[in-house]
Design brief:
This protein is an alpha/beta fold. The chain has 16 helices and 13 strands. The strands form 2 sheets. It has a 7-stranded parallel beta sheet with strand order 3-2-1-4-5-6-7, sandwiched between helices. A 6-stranded parallel beta sheet has the order 10-9-8-11-12-13, sandwiched between helices. α10 links the parallel β9 and β10. α1 crosses α16 and α9 crosses α14. The longest helix is centred in the last third of the chain and has 24 residues.
Length: 370
């Protein structure tokens, strides 16, 4: 099967979390013998920022970790028909230009033989619905949504049984516990500051609890304005700037535990979506404590795979317990890794993707036979 994926960037993970999951999925498809081609636009915002932040050397970790992956850069006005020629499956990520999205749909509607799927891994369907409804998806065969609550949005928009839940997952070829354990110390948080939509939560569930318990805290991420950096320093945490996602396993391996602080949209309006960091952290064998979110799809065993703290006091207590109880840390690592390996790897998601194609193919065959 020939698979074409249109992404904002495969090479850059600078404020582009979809690249994490995409790399693992494409690598697994290649390992199964499928032909894969990824396209990204010239001047991609994420890549431009990565190069401005770290230079060409900032791409080295990705290239070293994923030697089998490449992407083709295209200019505005490129021949889209030529780009998808011979494809059996075309996946279109939502972080793409509306004109490109529409053109792939038009090609499909005019009889192109590929299956066209729109892949949504963001909260814009609820935070900026006009940005998503502006896409012309009329020619697409289906939608892949990274959580049930997001899938329900598309069902309300008329997609019915042509929207499929396709959660993110861990690429366990890269994200796994260290071969040799080293000394671990303190907490780590890998996350972008964003637009301030979780500033209060970071203070209540990360900065202040770490300071209260007396645990060192290392912060990695981008888009930290001056006020955010002052907050980080004010709580005694160390800010290290951007780090390639491909080296995140090494970062996790140096720390006792990590904390997950979901963005507000994934608490209030899209509950049940953990986002990629939970999968990756558990795959790396680091104990995880999360600020509150509702695991409505029962993806994990809360309290067994990781700890959930509903209040700041609970977070302080959980951090103290983790600091003092090596058996608790070991139990969380064992359970979390077990859940990832049994349910949430990129190989599992490729299986799910192939099942979606089988279902859509069967549906088309029924339509033709009728």
């Amino acid at each position: 099967m020939k698979v074409v994926y249109f992404t904002h960037s495969l090479a850059s993970c600078w404020n582009h979390g979809n690249a994490h999951f995409l790399r693992g999925v494409l690598r697994d498809l290649i390992a199964r013998g499928h032909e894969v081609q990824a396209f990204e636009p010239e001047g991609a915002w994420s890549l431009e920022n990565l190069l401005g932040d770290a230079g060409e050397a900032g791409l080295a970790a990705y290239r070293d970790a994923y030697p089998e992956l490449t992407s083709t850069t295209y200019a505005s006005g490129a021949d889209v028909a030529a780009m998808v020629d011979g494809a059996d499956l075309v996946l279109m990520h939502e972080w793409n230009a509306p004109a490109l999205v529409a053109e792939v749909g038009r090609l499909r509607a005019r009889g192109a033989r590929f299956t066209a799927l729109f892949h949504d891994t963001h909260h814009r369907a609820v935070s900026e619905p006009d940005a998503i409804t502006a896409f012309d998806l009329s020619g697409y065969d289906g939608v892949l949504a990274f959580g049930e609550t997001l899938a329900e949005v598309y069902r309300r928009w008329g997609w019915g049984d042509r929207v499929f839940v396709w959660h993110e997952a861990a690429d366990v070829r890269l994200f796994h516990p260290p071969q040799v354990e080293q000394h671990r110390d303190g907490l780590v948080w890998i996350g972008n500051w964003g637009d301030g939509e979780r500033t209060e939560e970071l203070t209540r569930f990360l900065f202040r609890p770490a300071q209260t318990v007396g645990l060192g805290l290392d912060i990695y991420g981008v888009r930290y304005p001056r006020a955010a950096l002052e907050t980080v320093r004010g709580f005694g945490a160390d800010y290290h700037g951007w780090t390639p996602n491909a080296v995140a396993p090494q970062v996790f391996a140096r720390h006792m535990a990590t904390v997950h602080v979901p963005r507000r949209f994934y608490i209030d309006t899209l509950p049940g979506i953990p986002t990629i960091r939970v999968f990756e952290a558990l795959a790396c064998g680091i104990p995880l404590i999360s600020a509150p979110w509702r695991d409505s799809e029962h993806l994990f065993r809360v309290g067994q795979d990781f700890l959930m703290s509903e209040t700041e006091d609970q977070m302080v207590d959980a951090l103290a317990r983790l600091r003092d109880d090596a058996d608790l840390r070991a139990s969380l690592v064992k359970s979390g890794l077990e859940t990832i390996l049994s349910r949430h790897t990129c190989a599992h998601r490729v299986d799910e993707l192939l099942a979606v194609l089988d279902k859509l193919g069967a549906s088309r065959r029924r339509t033709v036979d009728a």
